[in-house]
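The following block was generated as part of the benchmark described in Methods. Ligand: ribulose-5-phosphate.
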Amino acid sequence: MTADEMKKAVAMAALDLVKPMLAADVVIGIGTGSTANHFIDALKPYANDFLGAVASSDASAQRLKANGVDVLELNSAGTLPVYVDGADEFDPRFNLIKGGGAALTREKIVAQASQQFICIVDGSKQVPVLGNFPLPVEVIPMARSLVARELVKLGGDPVYREGVITDNGNVILDVHNLSITDPKGLEAAINNLPGVVCNGLFALRGADVVLMGTPDGVQSLSI
Ligand SMILES: O=C(CO)[C@H](O)[C@H](O)COP(=O)(O)O
């Protein structure tokens, strides 16, 4: 089974969890990336069974609309019952690194607005300790060098993701060589740096459910 086939399988497994929640007044949260894209495509036959979705990126919003799903603003949607999204890494406590697709800020907002976060990943994303995947940090452009120096003080090696501007008009620093033994503490510390909009650690609000695709099928993991 290819990685893409595993991503599709976890997307279908997530759909099985979400289908019973769908109703005429229900709005769901949708993430960004190749795994989330499979989930969006799988929603097409059910597009008329719920009110719509809040998207974590312009790319996902466009894909939802192409699949017949109405896209709503979070401000008019209130609390969402569920958020479905991928991740770049997850640890045994369901802390995550996200933002490989540069959508981390809106992803974190929609996750925070949701009662349940279903994380859909292939097995390559499972790690004992977060940090092998470089941690994305979204930064106000004028603060890029300042924040980079502060991230070095925290023990990381930040690299400017050249050519990438987020949906919010900001830039991304990818922080290499972090061994993240205190995900909540590091998430808060990085968020406290002036110029940082958001960082890709999802520990203060991690996933509730992880569906992991393996060559032997989809595993529903628990903490
Ligand atoms: O955080 C993300 C985008 O900002 C994605 O969820 C993460 O990069 C995983 O992507 P994929 O499903 O393509 O492996």
